Amino acid sequence: MSETIQDGKFVELTYNVTDKKTGHVLTSVEFPLGYVHGHNEILAPVVHGELEKKAAGDVIKVPIDGNQIFGPRDESLVFTDHIDNVPEEYRQVGTSILMENDSGQTRSFLVTWMDDEKLIVDGNNPLSGREVVFTLQILTVRDATDEEKRAGGAIVEEVDIDPSLMKPV
């Protein structure tokens, strides 16, 4: 009998998030994501709840209302600026920019659109105001090692790389 997901189990999975309305894949994790269930909740709590008692090989779909988890979209967090006012390193769609307000609070903004004259940044979570479906494929379920429990997830081995093999990109 295969092991099922419960507290203390090491789980590896892949997933994608699809916009329920358009069917477009918003994000995809193709390389196995490893965590210790009950020790390192890396996804939304409702997703972790749906993973309980599932086994390696299972594929599950979990609908999520982004309004409940991230709140509704707040259009006051969307800004348009002239491209010349934006430093060169932020002039690429998908770039994350950490901004601070007058009170010292920080928020991450994402460059969502640009052309030769203007650029738009958005401080909303990309899932705010959306209904999405997480499709998760469970790859591994096993007892977590003590080291994985302490780390909360997969242990990445350090590798010594010969500097003479490195080339600038």
List the helices and strands and how they pair.
Layout: E1 9-19, E2 25-36, H1 45-51, E3 59-65, H2 66-70, E4 78-82, E5 96-100, E6 106-114, E7 118-122, E8 131-143, H3 146-151
What would you note in describing this structure?
The structure is a single chain. The chain has 3 helices and 8 strands. With 169 residues, the protein is mainly β. The chain folds into 2 domains: 9-69 and 128-154, Chitinase A, domain 3 (Roll), CATH 3.10.50.40; 74-122, Thrombin, subunit H. The strands form 2 sheets. A 4-stranded antiparallel sheet has the order 2-1-8-3. The protein has a 4-stranded antiparallel sheet with strand order 4-7-6-5, with no helix packed on it. The longest helix has 7 residues, at 45-51. The radius of gyration is 20 Å and the shape is elongated. The model has no long low-confidence stretch (mean pLDDT 88).
What are the main properties of this structure?
mainly beta; Chitinase A, domain 3; Thrombin, subunit H; 2 domains; 4-stranded antiparallel sheet; 3 helices; 8 strands
Write a concise synopsis of the structure shown.
This protein has 169 residues and is mostly beta strands. 11% of the residues lie in helices and 40% in strands.
Rounded radius of gyration (Å): 20 Å
The residue-averaged pLDDT reads: 88
Q: Catalogue the unreliable spans.
A: none
**Integer count of domains:** 2
Within the CATH hierarchy, at the fold level, what is the topology of the largest domain?
Chitinase A, domain 3
Give the neighbour order of strands across the main sheet.
Answer: 2-1-8-3
How far is the N terminus from the C terminus?
A: 49 Å
Level-1 CATH class name of the largest domain: Alpha Beta
* Secondary structure: helix percent: 10-25%
Secondary structure class reads mainly beta
Number of helices: 3
The shape is: elongated
What kind of sheet is the major sheet?
4 strands, antiparallel
Quote the beta fraction: 35-45%
